[in-house]
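Exercise 7.
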Amino acid sequence: MAMMLTAVAHAAEVNDTTVISNARQVIVVTNDSIQQVKILGKEDDDRYVYENTIQLVDTNYVSEQRTYRDLKALGFELNKKGDLKKHSNVLTLNFGLGVSVPTNVPDGMDFKPMKSLEAMIWAIYNHTPYKGKNTFSTGLGLTARFYGLGSNQMFTKDGSTVVLGSYPEGSDYRSSSISVGSLSVPFFYTRDFGKKSHFKLSLGPVVNFNFMGNLSNSYETSDDIFDYSIYAKAQGIGYRPVTIDFMSVLRFYGIGLYMKYSPQNVLKDGRGPQFHPLSFGLFF
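Solution. The predicted structure, written as tokens, is:
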């Protein structure tokens, strides 16, 4: 009877089931007299600890099971990769390339998206508090923007003002654009939608300190004997020294699609055609 009762008790213990979802780390220790299982962390509780110890004693065994949340008793860190750190700080180098589609354009102006481009190279400092769902970022980098017209118009200067003009009759390979170079400072809030979705959304303003701007024209013309290539560049176009963009980046597996818009005009009032920059493209 005693042997049968012992066998029934052992069977009941073997059939006991403990379910722990999304364990962070599992440690199994086995030797001739003991088997120990430790499970560190679980879903929604990184500090959870489960222990089950089985000791062999005179052909029998003693089982002990307990759970607790004091990780210091283990004598080692739960995750050496930093999942349980209070925060993380990462510096990243980011590149962006897109096309511009200026808005609020005056009648008669014909911007071409494939002639209006934007390029960025930014160093961004990212601070992620505990749990890693929200990230706050700022940085510094260079941005170059080009606003190109169609082949029927060209930018020219009338004194200190940028105006629209016409190409010489019969000219070919026409190109005319305004370019602006900036030192950019982004301020982003990023929300991570979880490891399974792999989606991140970043939003925030970008302050541009514009340090250069010019207009450039090029075309080819010919007479009865020679072909001529004409290239002209003019500075002092009256661009705004400081502008603010509003930018969003949607990332999937690290590849981002961005959109950026500025409610400010590129040129100062009274210094040329007024239009607002709108751009979109890839951001890595």
